[in-house]
């Protein structure tokens, strides 16, 4: 636990990728294999099932310390993260403590993972006694483990780089082995780092190649004839792997999602063995995609009932083939792969190629995106291999301009992590007659200086406090951008915005000049 | 019912029966000063009175020409109808609580204080009183300080890592009090010179003049041109962070020593490589212990989480309120959290 806490601290306090890689290399070079497997589990973003809510922990801390609820809330408002608050409250320097040298894997297998089968009371007793063995950042990590919310500030790419350094292997080999399903067993690290690469699990997908946003004029890409254009679909990026007579469907989050989309899997069974396709899972009806929210119904449910299947029909829209007849063909140029795609996968629709001889012609086609329910265009260099990760240069997403509205700041609450203690989570409203109706929450888009200024303004212009949330005078106007708009029964305004973010602080506008709910409703009409 | 011994006026805390102010923020004829931080000791008072040990620092703050009287800790001064005495507060060198009594009632104004050990100043003295005016900078139960020696060992480990890796360790800390405390704590552990920013040097000298044992210091500006400072510890005021002054250190790590560093978000947001939780203010337990030990029936909380402390006191059965003073929540001017 101590070594993991130290690694966590080193990764947490630096933004330098080299320092992060160095910290991981040092850890994995000396760590016990049984501990290292669990550390890898957490570093790659995997999580334990939540064993208890952080509110539950806060309640127990209240009982253990005798602190009243309001004092815990005041502390939380300052810290911005309840699990950290709980840890700081427990980390009272005056308390007696029995230091523990129990290694991480035993903390997990002999303690934390046994909590699931206990009664609440037994959990409380166990957790309280374990708390007394921990201090500082170890308490923080322990509480985050209990609540299933431990996040470590490293990307999979950095973890891959560090392991590749330890093993002296190419990062791509490690990336491939890290893909897919594995358990944090003591032999994991040895298997990942082994020199021999012949026994790669048949289920494993390839690392996804990710497109970068095109932020400059499209003309810099050169001759349009060298580029392949497709619609940018707003679905779930997925790889379909057919090997040894079995179909595996992997999402980009490296989650096996085969059981979510049985109709895709059953069609895939007809593929030749040794085939890997890259594409997009889309909710689709009558030749056009349905809003992303419809697709979410397929992910969110534990059981797929016939009515869900009927209400949210999906297709797997393929756009690339990475393996054919058991051969890895990622190094072949995209134009060759695309030529083989349709013959290799006749049971799936292939993403339409948008033909255009000039960039301006393509730009005009791109304008159709909103009515088609797509996000814009994808531009892929015809000569490019299928790369791993986000490598700029060959795949670009050329999105349509977002929707834009002016809205009034009505509530604020402190952020978490890097922004804890600062008011950075904002609620925005537009006019509905004389009243303001909430339409969006947004967290990003302001500079650090603007955040600090707005934080001061919020503190000085609070009209009411509800726990950590402050109602503020409806004075400040912000330009918000968002990608899509959908009707919603769950939101008071009757509509929901997708990816709202702050584009600009409109200090030049007064609240009365903000937009109306009617204008947003008009956007809904455009989409239909 | 007679008038309270101390009242809040536009110029600050005022005692009408002795006709003096404590740590006033506007010019007044007679000011009693708890300690020499800028938000407590301001320019332009007709006269200043402070504890003997704090006179040197106070003179630096308010100018050579200021009229400063000193009094020994514990000695009673008769001022008008009341008696006034100074008692150590353990915050920085010479920092004092001010006790005011009219023979029937005793009020104590703590100024800033801490309860933990500090090799650079006299420890806090519990002064029994009826009414306690206490600071509340860190009045939340999340604030709990490890002993200074423990934090000093963490700082030393960071410095040693700098020696091993060959980079400079630039530690930001408040210029008055915190910097000297670090030099005093480290002097108990090692004997190596420390580089200091020019703004710190005179304050370090003032501590030495008062007989406080500190690590030897060298001025950064006196170092020969082109020196890289590999493996050196450098103390600097927070204002130097992000300035071009830092360029000379080449390869360096930064850290900040402050009670605010106890919260992860503060550590991360400010972009220092390291945060050491080291404060010269009382932590939550320190505040509650002090209130209990001095036996006050009424508590007035100033600066910081004053509402929280007042409410906690009321829930413990005491009479308590907040006093809205103009003391800052930090020890140096111009430093937001």
Runs of chain A in which pLDDT lies below 50 for 5 or more consecutive residues are none
Unreliable residue runs of chain B: 331-337
Largest interface: A-B, 33 and 29 residues
Structural category of chain B is alpha/beta
Distance between the ends of chain B: 42 Å
SSE pattern of chain B: EEEEEHEEEEEEHEHEHEEEHEHEHE
User: Which CATH first-tier class of the largest domain in chain B would you pick?
Assistant: Alpha Beta
Helix content of chain A: 25-40%
The number of distinct helices of chain A, counting runs of at least 4 residues, comes to: 20
The shape of chain A is globular
The gyration radius over C-alpha positions of chain A equals 26 Å
- Supply the number of structural domains of chain A: 4
CATH fold-level name of the largest domain in chain B: Metallo-beta-lactamase, Chain A
Write the CATH fold name of the largest domain in chain A.
Answer: DNA ligase i, domain 1
Radius of gyration of chain B, rounded? 20 Å
Biggest pleated sheet of chain B: 7 strands, mixed
């Amino acid at each position: 636990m101590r070594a993991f806490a130290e690694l966590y601290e080193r990764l947490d306090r630096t933004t330098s990728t080299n320092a992060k890689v160095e910290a991981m290399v040092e850890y994995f070079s000396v760590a016990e294999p049984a501990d290292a497997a669990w550390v890898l589990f957490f570093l790659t973003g995997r999580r334990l099932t939540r064993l208890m809510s952080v509110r539950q922990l806060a309640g127990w801390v209240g009982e253990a310390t005798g602190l009243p609820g309001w004092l815990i809330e005041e502390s939380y408002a300052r810290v911005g993260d309840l699990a950290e608050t709980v840890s700081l409250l427990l980390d009272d320097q005056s308390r007696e403590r029995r230091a523990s040298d129990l290694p991480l894997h035993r903390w997990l297998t002999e303690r934390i993972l046994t909590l699931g089968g206990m009664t609440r009371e037994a959990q409380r007793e166990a957790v309280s006694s374990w708390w007394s063995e921990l201090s500082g950042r170890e308490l923080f990590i322990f509480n985050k483990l209990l609540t299933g919310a431990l996040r470590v500030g490293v990307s999979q790419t950095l973890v891959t780089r560090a392991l590749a350094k330890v093993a002296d292997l190419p990062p791509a080999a490690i990336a491939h082995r890290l893909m897919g399903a594995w358990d944090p067993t003591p032999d994991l690290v040895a298997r990942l780092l082994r020199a021999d690469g012949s026994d790669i699990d048949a289920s494993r997908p390839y690392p996804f190649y990710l497109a970068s946003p095109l932020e400059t004029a499209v003309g810099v890409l050169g001759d349009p004839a060298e580029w392949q254009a497709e619609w940018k679909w707003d679905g779930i990026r997925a790889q379909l792997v057919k090997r040894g007579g079995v179909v595996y469907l992997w999402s980009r989050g490296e989650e096996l999602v085969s059981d979510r989309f049985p109709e895709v899997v059953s069609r895939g069974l007809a593929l030749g063995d040794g085939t890997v396709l890259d594409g997009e899972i889309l909710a689709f009806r009558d030749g056009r995609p349905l809003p992303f929210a419809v697709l979410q119904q397929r992910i969110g449910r534990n059981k797929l009932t016939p009515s869900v299947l009927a209400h949210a029909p999906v297709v797997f829209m393929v756009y690339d083939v990475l393996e054919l007849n058991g051969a890895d063909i990622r190094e072949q140029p995209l134009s060759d792969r695309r030529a083989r795609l349709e013959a290799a996968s006749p049971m799936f629709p292939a993403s339409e190629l948008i033909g255009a001889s000039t960039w301006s012609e393509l730009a005009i086609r791109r304008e159709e995106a909103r009515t088609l329910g797509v996000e814009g265009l994808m531009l892929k260099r015809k000569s490019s291999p299928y790369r791993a990760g986000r490598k700029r240069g060959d795949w670009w997403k050329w999105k349509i301009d977002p929707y834009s509205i002016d809205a009034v700041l009505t509530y604020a609450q402190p952020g978490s992590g890097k922004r804890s203690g600062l008011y950075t989570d904002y609620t925005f409203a537009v006019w509905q007659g004389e009243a303001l109706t909430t339409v969006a929450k947004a967290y990003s888009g302001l500079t650090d200086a603007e955040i600090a200024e707005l934080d001061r303004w919020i503190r000085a212009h609070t009209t009411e406090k509800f726990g950590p949330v402050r109602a503020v005078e409806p004075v400040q106007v912000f330009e918000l951008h968002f990608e899509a708009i959908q009707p919603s029964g769950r939101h008071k305004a009757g509509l929901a915005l997708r990816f709202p973010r702050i584009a600009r602080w409109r200090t030049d506008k007064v609240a009365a000049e903000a937009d109306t709910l009617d204008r947003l409703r008009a956007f809904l009409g455009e989409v239909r | 019912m007679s008038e309270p011994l101390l009242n809040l006026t536009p110029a600050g805390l005022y005692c009408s029966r002795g006709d003096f102010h404590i740590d006033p923020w506007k010019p007044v004829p007679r000011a009693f000063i708890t300690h020499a931080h800028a938000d407590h000791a301001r320019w332009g008072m007709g006269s200043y009175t402070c504890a003997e040990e704090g006179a040197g620092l106070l003179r630096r703050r308010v100018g050579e020409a200021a009229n400063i009287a000193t009094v020994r800790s514990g000695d009673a001064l008769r001022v008008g109808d009341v008696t006034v005495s100074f008692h150590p507060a353990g915050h920085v060198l010479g920092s004092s609580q001010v006790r005011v009594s009219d023979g029937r009632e005793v009020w104590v104004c703590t100024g800033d204080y801490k309860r933990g050990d500090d090799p650079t100043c006299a420890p806090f003295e519990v002064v029994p009183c009826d009414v306690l005016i206490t600071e509340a900078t860190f009045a939340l139960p999340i604030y709990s300080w490890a002993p200074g020696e423990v934090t000093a060992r963490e700082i030393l480990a960071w410095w040693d890592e700098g020696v091993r890796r060959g980079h400079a360790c630039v530690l930001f800390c408040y210029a008055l009090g915190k910097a000297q405390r670090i030099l005093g704590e480290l002097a108990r552990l090692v004997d190596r010179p420390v580089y200091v920013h020019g703004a710190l040097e005179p304050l370090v000298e003032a501590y030495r003049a008062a007989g406080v044992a500190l690590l030897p210091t060298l001025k950064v500006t006196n170092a020969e041109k082109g020196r890289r400072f590999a493996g050196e510890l450098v103390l600097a005021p927070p204002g130097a962070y992000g300035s071009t002054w830092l360029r000379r250190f080449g390869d360096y790590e930064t850290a900040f020593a402050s009670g605010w560093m106890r919260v992860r978000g503060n550590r991360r947001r400010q972009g220092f490589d390291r945060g050491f939780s080291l404060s010269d203010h009382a932590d939550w337990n320190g505040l509650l212990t002090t209130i209990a030990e001095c036996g006050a029936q009424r508590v007035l909380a100033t600066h910081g989480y004053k509402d929280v402390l007042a409410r906690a006191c009321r829930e413990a059965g005491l009479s308590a309120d907040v006093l809205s003073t103009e003391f800052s929540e930090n020890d140096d001017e111009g430093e937001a959290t």
